[in-house]
TrEMBL record, chains A, B:
This is Transcriptional regulator. SMART domains: HTH_MARR. It holds the Pfam family MarR_2. It comes from Planotetraspora mira. GO terms for biological process: response to stress. Residues 1-146 form the HTH marR-type domain.
Length: 155, 155
């Protein structure tokens, strides 16, 4: 049997630490956002919309930006619509298209939550790193993102 | 109003790259495991059990090891039980406890899938990094894991 290229202890340590840290960090940030009635996924959608012109994005663009399937996003947007944070609007120039649009409540919520959330991201991630490590994280993970995008577009 | 400590462009870049890379990588690995009828979460459970004495773990330990709630794990184990990969057994020395135990099919599946999965982890993550970057990832994310465990145990 060929050597299947098992990971070295350090490689395995890096991979497992990456998985564990991501999961723990997501739980922690989710938990802190729950005080505002939001999940981390809700918050990412609010931020994407709040940074877009007229606080609106096509559902297809929003799905790409938040890296989830359109069906999953659609359920998510329904929940956020029920909470009064966003609405859906038909695209005037494209019958098949729908926009997700931030409501006033959605905008106010984003403004109120953002400083707290950023403080959490600092406390549990960024401020644990040296500036060199921050630069390395950006470099490594941008490389991974580019790699996976290139695989997907090659299909 | 006080400066809420907004992230610098590099810090924000690092944080967003971390989130995006993790999500894309999880999807990619999930997709490749689907060829074997498994999710990434299934695979992690199989690996944890296959590395344990007698291929069994208490449900509470398995929940901790895979960083998920006991109720979520319980649903997951029910699905894997239906697929014939694991069984549940009562603990003889603890009436309230239950073990998750790998079946022969679960063991065979783990042995068959592991080389393919490790090749995916190499292709989409480890082999994109220099050895120094692998060491940095291990260091950074182990620090994050320790930090979050220390917050949790302080409560």
């Amino acid at each position: 049997m060929e050597d299947p290229g098992w990971l070295s202890p350090r490689e395995q340590g890096a991979w497992r630490a990456h998985l564990a840290a991501h999961r723990l960090l997501s739980h922690q940030l989710d938990r802190e956002l729950q005080a505002f009635g939001l999940s981390l996924n809700d918050y990412e959608i609010l931020v994407n919309l709040s940074e877009s012109p007229e606080h609106r994005m096509r559902m297809s663009e929003l799905a790409d930006a938040t890296i989830q399937s359109r069906s999953r996003l659609s359920h998510q947007i329904s929940r956020m619509e029920a909470a009064g944070l966003v609405t859906r609007e038909d695209c005037e120039d494209d019958r098949r298209g729908t926009y997700a649009v931030l409501t006033d409540l959605g905008w106010d919520t984003t403004q109120r939550v953002a400083p707290e959330h950023v403080a959490s991201v600092r406390e549990h991630f960024i401020d644990l790193l040296t500036p060199e490590q921050v630069a390395t994280v950006e470099e490594i993970y941008t490389h991974v993102v580019d790699h996976i995008h290139s695989i997907r577009s090659a299909k």
